[in-house]
Amino acid sequence: AGATFRQTRSVDGSEACAPLAGSVPYQLAPDVVLVPVDDGSARLLDLDGGFFVLSSMAREMLEDSLADDPEQVVQRLAAKYGAAEERIRADLQALLAELWRRDLIAGGGKALSARRVRRLLAKALAWLPLRLLHSFAWTGTVGSSALMIFARLCMSLFGWSATVHAWSSRFPSEKAGPSLAARELTAQVDRGVRRAAAKLPFVACKERALCCWYLLNSRGIEATLIIGIQLYPLAGHCWCQVGGHILADLPDYCAQYAPVVRYGSLGSGAASPHHRAREIG
User: Fold this and answer.
1) What's the gap between Cα 150 and its chain centre?
2) Closest Cα to residue 227, out of 211, 243, 209?
3) How far is it between the farthest Cα atoms of the chain?
4) Is the pLDDT assigned to residue 5 strictly greater than 70?
5) What angle do CA 211, 212, 217 make, to 5 degrees?
6) What pLDDT does 24 receive?
7) What whole-number distance in Å separates Cα of residue 57 and Cα of residue 19?
8) More confident residue, 9 or 75
9) 10 Å Cβ neighbour count for 93?
10) Which residues touch 29 (CB under 8 Å, ≥6 apart)?
11) Dihedral in degrees, nearest 10, Cα atoms 90, 92, 97, 103
12) Cα–Cα dist 100/16, whole Å
């Protein structure tokens, strides 16, 4: 249940890649999170599915390149480590080229159009099924099952980020009722999704959490969608919570993962994840 994202090979900047054009600071691609680790290394988390390990030197190179002109980064690192600028430049270009090729950074003329296309397609194709499923999803286990199956289909077609973006833009503008009614609705969603998930062995934490988040926000209840990671072994997990209450999941299991991304209650508009930059260990 915790294998939300896959681990990929390390990125240390030593592999030969074509150099990049441009001399302006780079930026992380949308929905890519840089997670510092207390040993000096870092993990790049692509919310569409992938972990990338950065060595301590690769982390320093990337962080500096996100804040400054790459040529300034070369000069600063060469002076800091007493290395030849040509060697630093070659390693930096190799690192940035590899990240650029994987659509993890923007810059050097890269448009990152594939991510935008997935978002546009998800918004265009998800609105009608979501509209039809919205009321049905509140009917019980069968409705929750249908919504989770649709969530899995969306993620298979468009990826995690585009799916969350599309679903959040379809929140109906209902207002939260009295606190007692909100608690009852929260418990109803929790029960319905748990029971449905027990009958659908192919759904995982992503589908459970997304459906809880969508259903509660559609009724004006402030729910948060959280992505957490653990380092040893490297793995990710996703859950939904209202206040301190975790829905359709095990609190003790979720506690094993350090939260790195949170999607708040939005009511309308596109999802904007909040990234946590603190080091984890």
Assistant:
1) 19
2) 209
3) 67
4) no
5) 100
6) 62
7) 18
8) 75
9) 20
10) 46, 103, 104, 105, 106, 112, 115
11) 180
12) 13
pLDDT greater at residue 103 or residue 263: 263
Helices 113-136 & 160-168, crossing angle to 10 degrees?
50
Kindly write down the DSSP assignment for every residue of 115-163, as one continuous string.
Answer: HHHHHHHHHHHHHHHHHHHHHHGGGSHHHHHHHHHHHHHHHHHH-HHHH
- Check: CB of residue 154 under 8 Å from CB of residue 126: yes
| Whole-number Å distance between alpha carbons of 143 and 189 | 11
The label of the residue with tokens 């918004």 reads 123
Task: Judge whether 20 and 65 are in contact, CB under 8 Å.
Answer: no
Q: Is 188 a residue whose pLDDT tops 60?
A: yes
Six-digit token string for 14: 């030593």
Q: Which two tokens stand for residue 196?
A: 């449905």
Q: In 3-state terms, what secondary structure has residue 241?
A: strand
What residue has token string 């799916």? Answer: 163
CB atoms within 10 A of CB 169: 18
Q: Which residues are within 8 A (CB) of 101 and not within 5 positions of it... i.e. 6 or more apart?
A: 17
pTM of the entire predicted model: 0.81
Q: Report which residue type is found at 2.
A: G
The residue whose two tokens read 């039809």 is 132
